[in-house]
Design goal:
Length: about 325
């Protein structure tokens, strides 16, 4: 199954695409590597085709923004987005390193899982490049509009690499992080008047959804392999969606001081005299997390309470 074929949407397919088919994310990666006999070269080719199909220019995107038309709120949204995007490169660097380690660990005992991990690590180069577009676009725009500059010390602080974890847990966390970013950017679009800036936020949101779909594909393949357990995906979802969980972002009464990495969505700032706009949309994020869980594990839940009960049942089982 594929969805709309343009640069603002994300293509997915349950089967390997034919040579003349539009590029798409292979959602049944385990089946592609086993039943359909795809090699890593085949999978990488599909990754490259989709990456090139969706590639866009930061220079062209910024040229379409009318700087004189931007409101104080517009500039604050750009300023916050630039800082949030600074924290993404460490995630991509960590994913590449961790996926390679998992690839080597499974190479003898389960070559299919090894191939899944290598496909994930290989794709991280595209994720890194696309996130570089987001980071540079927002931070350059903030600079052009006279927003407070980012000190080198802050830049380096925001590059802290996340601690390693179980690979399924890592992929679920990254999927939720992309859901958070995509929904936040979608909310920002609704309060922006300038068409050029609105287009930039729309494009970045579409990229984040594409990244979410890749993480879901890799996570589903691990569960399908039988080597990783659904309970770990539910554990991470519960961490985010529990009462006062991280899905609430900067609206929480108390935000963790991790000391290991930065999540700017927890720290959103506004300037004096501005409306207190916070792109939280928690209900929408929850529904997208439930959808990701269903795709990864095949288990359907509809509320935080059902999620917690299911997680406890899986742990107990």
């Amino acid at each position: 199954m594929t969805v709309e074929a343009d640069h603002g949407t994300v293509l997915v397919t349950q089967r390997p695409a034919g040579p003349d088919a539009p590029p798409a994310i292979i959602t049944d990666l385990f089946g592609a590597l086993t039943r359909h006999g795809l090699s890593l070269v085949d999978v990488t080719w599909e990754q490259q085709r989709l990456h090139e199909f969706r590639r866009w220019s930061v220079l062209d995107m910024l040229a379409a923004v009318d700087l004189d038309r931007l409101t104080p709120l517009d500039r604050t949204l750009v300023w916050n987005a630039g800082r949030a995007e600074l924290t993404t490169k460490p995630g991509a660097d960590r994913l590449e390193r961790q996926a390679d380690a998992e690839c080597r660990r499974w190479q003898d005992s389960n070559p299919t899982v090894s191939a899944i991990m290598q496909a994930c690590g290989t794709w991280s180069r595209y994720w890194n490049e696309e996130e570089a577009h987001h980071e540079t676009a927002f931070n350059r725009l903030a600079q052009l509009t006279g927003m407070a500059p980012i000190p080198d010390e802050t830049f380096i602080e925001f590059r802290q690499v996340f601690p390693d974890d179980d690979m399924l847990r890592t992929l679920m966390l990254l999927a939720i992080s992309e859901i958070t970013a995509a929904v936040n950017y979608g909310q920002c679009q609704q309060v922006i008047d300038d068409p050029g800036l609105r287009r930039l936020f729309k494009q970045v949101a579409a990229d984040e959804i594409q990244h979410r779909n890749y993480f879901v594909s890799f996570a589903k393949a691990l569960v399908d392999s039988g080597e990783y357990q659904a309970k770990d995906a539910f554990a991470v979802a519960h961490l985010f969606l529990r009462e006062d969980g991280e899905i609430l972002g900067s609206s929480r009464d108390q935000v963790e001081n991790r000391g290991t990495h930065v999540n700017w969505w927890d720290r959103l700032e506004r300037k004096a005299g501005e409306d207190d706009f916070r792109p939280e949309a928690v209900e929408k994020k929850q529904q997208l997390v439930f959808g990701a869980l269903k795709k990864i594990t095949g288990i359907e839940v509809h509320s935080r309470e059902e999620l917690e009960d299911t997680w406890m049942d899986l742990v107990g089982g």
